[in-house]
């Protein structure tokens, strides 16, 4: 009479570990393929970090089968990750340079594809106690630029109530930031920043430091405005009108520091990335742009990727 062979007590643990190993190798027992989510990785601009996180949360309600992972670090960090192929979408608060586009072609064999997703204005923040209400681009350059001669608030005819110090505390983003590069190009005419900056890793940190420092000035995206700080009106020249950063002045370009917000992919976006960017350009995605404090695209500007 034949009997079915049974594992001995010594063999049973080994069989159990083999079965567990098989389960781990194939991403778990009892899980169907439908349990696996598509993952999109977005990285880059800290200016866009809060907006990108809000997009990811909103899209989860629309497409729960897609997980959007968002991180910041600055436009330079996001660009490096895109060139290394470790992310799907690069959030950029500045445009890629021609040299960077060519480097992408060399490294990946693909052409970077830019998609316009909204607009921002680089705002200049001062403490609520500061009586200053407007400033020129030339004065900002003299405060932040190498060789600039404005070092004290009294140089601008300003006295900070209750402050024993007259020295201007200059708050900046770090050099990997797209906002840093935007200010360097559009205010400093590509010259170096003055030494002695307090460089913050995030846009929110810039505003928080200005809030806590009566003699500080800092720059950040207008979406980080709060009741605890003041946004200066900016004039192109001493004889020009002063404009505050706002939706209308950003759209009509009267505010001197308006800029586009873009995302980049390597080549034309495909699959989950294409569907996600189309949703960002939809009414739902653009409402999140407004809710995050930025300026949405007009209907004509919503070019499908």
Description:
With 305 residues, the protein is α/β, with parallel strands linked by helices. It has two domains: 35-117 and 262-298, D-Maltodextrin-Binding Protein, domain 2; 121-258, Periplasmic binding protein-like II (D-Maltodextrin-Binding Protein, domain 2, 3-Layer(aba) Sandwich). 33% of the residues lie in helices and 22% in strands. It contains ten helices and twelve strands. It has helices spanning 11-25, 49-62, 75-84, 98-108, 137-144, 178-186, 203-212, 247-251, 271-280, 283-291, and strands at residues 38-44, 66-71, 89-92, 112-127, 134-136, 169-173, 198-200, 216-221, 229-231, 233-235, 242-243, 258-266. Strands 1, 2, 3, 4, 6, 7, 8, 9 and 12 form a nine-stranded mixed beta sheet that branches. Helix 2 (49-62) runs antiparallel to helix 10 (283-291).
Q: Indicate the CATH class of the largest domain.
A: Alpha Beta
* Count of distinct structural domains: 2
Low-pLDDT windows of residues: 1-34
Q: Count all strands and give the number.
A: 12
Structural class: alpha/beta
Mean pLDDT: 87
**What's the overall geometry?**
globular
